[in-house]
Design goal:
This protein is of the alpha/beta class. The protein is built from five helices and nine strands; from the N terminus they run E-E-H-E-H-E-H-E-H-E-H-E-E-E. It has a single domain, classed as Vaccinia Virus protein VP39 (Rossmann fold), CATH 3.40.50.150.
């Protein structure tokens, strides 16, 4: 495995306190422990939910979802270092729960889910900040019915998102230093 910059821990659930790593690749920004903890506290019970970790990076969000009882987690990232890291984290944790790791571009993966009629209860997205794809991807998800009824999209960003879509019923933002986490409900 690549040299690691730092280790994190799973916060709660079956794999609580187990270590996970992220690769040296500086383009991968794992969601900080306190933000992950806040996200899952807001979500409350995710047991039995289908979860998409889009732009998965180290996979820390999806791994936390598995630990907390998600029915199935999909990890999507286009980067080789990210995919290697997710695979090695899954192996190190001896995860037996249902998951799928996809090395794909964001829209390719979303189109695959459309084709296979896969819908999600929770979608977490954290694209590279400089790409600024939030609104485009969120609209694509909503326009193509990729969320189950009462589904939630969670976006971690460095700016306030400009979202105007008729399917968005709830929009709540939480600020953690320079990071804004937006919860969108349909």
């Amino acid at each position: 495995m690549q040299q690691k910059r730092e280790m994190m821990r799973i916060i709660a659930g079956k794999y609580k306190r187990r270590l996970i790593f992220w690769p040296e690749d500086i383009s991968i920004r794992p969601t900080k422990d306190r933000i992950r903890e806040a996200i899952f506290a807001i979500l409350n019970d995710i047991e039995g939910k289908t979860f998409l970790d889009l732009y998965a990076g180290s996979g820390s969000i999806g791994l936390e979802a598995i630990s907390r009882g998600a029915k199935k987690v999909y990890f999507v990232d286009k980067g080789v270092p990210a995919i290697k890291c997710i695979n090695e984290n899954v192996k190190a944790l001896n995860i037996v729960e249902d998951y799928e790791i996809l090395k794909m571009e964001d829209l390719d993966a979303l189109n695959r889910f459309i084709k296979e009629d896969i819908k999600f209860d929770i979608i977490f997205l954290d694209p590279p900040y400089k790409e600024g794809k939030y609104e485009e991807i969120i609209h694509f998800i909503l326009d193509n019915n990729l969320l189950n009824s009462y589904g939630i999209i969670i976006a971690e960003s460095d700016r306030k998102l400009l979202l105007n879509h008729p399917l968005i019923i709830k929009n709540k933002e939480y600020k953690y230093g320079d990071i804004i986490v937006t919860f969108l409900g349909v």
